[in-house]
Amino acid sequence: MVNDAQRNIDFYAGVLGLRLVKKTINFDRPEVYHLYFGNGSGDPGTVITFFPWEKQLKGRIGTGQVGVTSYVIPDHSMEFWKDRLQNFGVKYIQTVRYGETYLQFQDPDGLEIELVERADGPLNTWSNGEVQSDAAIKGFGGATLISAQPNKTADVLENILGLECLGQEGGFLRFKSEAQLGNIIDIKLTPSVRGLMGAGTVHHIAWRAKDEEEHRKWRDVLQEKGYYPTEILDRNYFKALYFHEEGGILFEIATDPPGFAVDEPIEELGQKLMLPSWLESKREELEKTLPAVQVLMKGER
C-alpha cells in the first residue's frame, strides 16, 4: 500500500531495477492502479504488487502484517547495491541473521526492504541501465512476518502449508520451502505494536499453487481445517483465494498460470494500461482519472 504511483515506479524500477510487468487497476477499486514489478518475465516468486492511492492514510507496520520483504541478489553483488543505494540517497543498515548478511532499508513510503546474497535461483536477465544481470535482483528471498500469535502462524506454515522449521535464532523463528526463490520465512518473536493498514504497509502475502487443480485442493484443505477461505477469484493473470491465519496476517494462494503474457506480448509487458474485459468500455474515463506515469530507464532521477 503506497501513496504515489510515479514515486513507486521510480523506486522499484528506477532504483531497484525491477521490471514493471503489468500496469492495470485494482479490480475492486478501478480508480486505483495495481502495479506489478518482477523479473524480466514476471515469473512466480519474483512479483511484488502495489495499490498506489494518494488519499490513503499512513499505516503502521506491526502485528498482523508482513514486516519486511526480502529480495535475493546474486553472490558478490552486495557492494554494488551499497554503492547504488548510497548514490540514490537511500539510507541502509547492515545486519546478520542466521549467518546471512542483510542490507536493510525503506522504500519512499516506509515499507521495509532487505537484500541478501544467495546462490539459489536463476539470474534475472532484465537490465535497467546500471543494474545488469550479475547484480540484478533475482526475486524474493522471502519475508518476515509479525504475528499477533507467533505459535499459531508457525503452525499454519509448518502443518498446513508444509514449510520446514529450521529453528530459532535471535528472536526469529525460520521456515523454508522447497522453492528456489521466496523460500525463507522468518516469524518475529519479540513483541511489536499492533499493525494499522495504510500507506507504507503490506496488505497480504501470496503463496503459489502450480495450477487450478492444486488451487482447488488448497481451498478444500483450508475449509476442512476451519480457516474459512474466500471463493476462488479470477484476477486475469492468476486465480486467487484469501484467508486470515490466527496471527492476523492475510494470506493469499494464487495460481502460477496463466501469467502476465496472457493479454500482451512478453516484450511489451507493463507499457500499456491493461483492463479486464468488463472495464474496457470505461478505458477513456479511467485513463483520464488515473495519474500519468512512466518508467525512467537507466536509473534516471
TrEMBL record:
InterPro entries in UniProt: Extradiol_RC_dioxygenase, Glyas_Bleomycin-R_OHBP_Dase, Glyas_Fos-R_dOase_dom, VOC_core
Gene3D superfamilies in the record: 2,3-Dihydroxybiphenyl 1,2-Dioxygenase, domain 1
Chain ranges of the VOC domain: 1-118, 139-256
A molecular-function term among this protein's GO annotations: dioxygenase activity
Highest taxon, organism lineage: Bacteria
Record's keyword terms, sorted: Dioxygenase, Oxidoreductase
Name listed for the protein in its UniProt record: Ring-cleaving dioxygenase
Taxonomic source organism: Mesobacillus campisalis
